[in-house]
Design goal:
Helix content is 70%, strand content 0%. It has 318 residues and is an all-alpha fold. It has two domains: 212 residues, no CATH class; 89 residues, no CATH class. The longest helix is centred in the first third of the chain and has 25 residues.
Length: 318
């Protein structure tokens, strides 16, 4: 947790949670399904309308905190307990925003779709503020962090898995008890693909939060790694059988510089902690599966977690 400008960071966090809740309320008003992590509370409200979506959100997220504590056991910390007041605020904000938007009922499918897209942009902005605040996170991200760190798994893939499990439970519950698919529809799929991508767009383009939170230390940290040096790199791109290895060796000898080819795999493995076999398989492989694209586009940089392909690139660069 960041402690510099703590008051401002807490305000940013609360503002982010409110905006996320407003986006959830908009997605519910669209009647085309809400975001994956909110699908189970929404479906639960459809099955038991006497309990609000916000209360079900608190209950479901409290269960996620309990799972974190069960995984960590004695290693549980204040981070888990701090999620409880945040999820309570989140649930209350959802109910408040559902009340504020009670008169908004899109009556045309195109308007419903536009509402879903708008909700994604709104939720993404809330997540952007939450990440910039860097003083806490909601239980969905908390459970993902615990599992990824405890079992050494990729943060993004764990997040996709958790979201998928929540959606699957919501679908089963609504079909079994309600008899028809409601609450999980095309809007849920749109949110799964769009929210994370828009969040990344905001993080690249919006800078006001960085200026608000900027400190002398942070400016120094950002500028120092980019100081110019006299080092240079020659990269040879080649196809198999083209003789690129031999050409590279001769150029290196003539210029009196180091030559790396397959040696780079061993060096990268040593520096990154990954196995040479993993590095050899993935160092030149672009993600091509649907899951990989979803992971890289939506979840890879949540809480500054670096995806493995980028980690390999950064280690090889050093």
């Amino acid at each position: 947790m960041r402690k510099d400008k703590l008051g401002l960071r807490i305000l940013l966090l609360l503002a982010g949670i409110f905006v996320i809740a407003y986006g959830v309320a908009l997605s519910i008003r669209s009647d085309l399904g809400t975001s994956p992590i909110s699908s189970l509370p929404y479906v639960s409200n459809l099955l038991f309308p006497g309990v609000t979506v916000g209360i079900f959100t608190i209950l479901v997220n409290a269960l996620l905190v309990l799972i974190q504590i069960m995984i960590l056991r004695k290693k549980s910390s204040l981070q888990q307990l701090l999620q409880l007041p945040l999820l309570s605020v989140f649930g209350l904000f959802i109910d408040l925003n559902l009340y504020l938007t009670r008169s908004f009922v899109p009556d045309h499918y195109l308007l419903q779709l536009l509402t879903v897209v708008l909700s994604c942009f709104v939720m993404a902005f809330g997540i952007f503020l939450e990440l910039k605040a860097d003083v806490g996170y909601l239980p969905g991200e908390g459970l993902t962090l615990v599992i990824s760190e405890k079992f050494n798994k990729n943060f993004g893939k764990v997040k996709v898995t958790i979201d998928s499990i929540v959606v699957a439970i919501a679908i089963f519950a609504v079909l079994f008890f309600h008899g028809k698919l409601e609450g999980v529809r095309e809007g849920t799929v749109i949110a799964a693909f769009l929210v994370g991508a828009v969040t990344q767009f905001y993080r690249k383009k919006i800078t006001f939060a960085d200026r608000l939170l900027e400190t002398k230390t942070s400016v120094k940290y950002v500028t120092e790694p980019y100081m110019s040096t006299n080092n240079f790199v020659i990269t040879i791109s080649r196809q198999y059988g083209s003789g690129g290895h031999a050409v590279g060796e001769r150029i290196a000898r003539k210029l009196g510089i180091a030559f790396y080819d397959s040696k780079l795999i061993d060096l990268t493995a040593m520096a990154s902690g990954l196995t040479p076999e993993y590095v050899e398989t993935h160092e030149q492989k672009l993600p091509d599966s649907l899951l990989e694209r979803l992971y890289n586009n939506n979840y890879a940089y949540v809480n500054e977690v670096i995806p493995p392909n980028d980690k390999l690139f950064m280690v090889q660069t050093r």
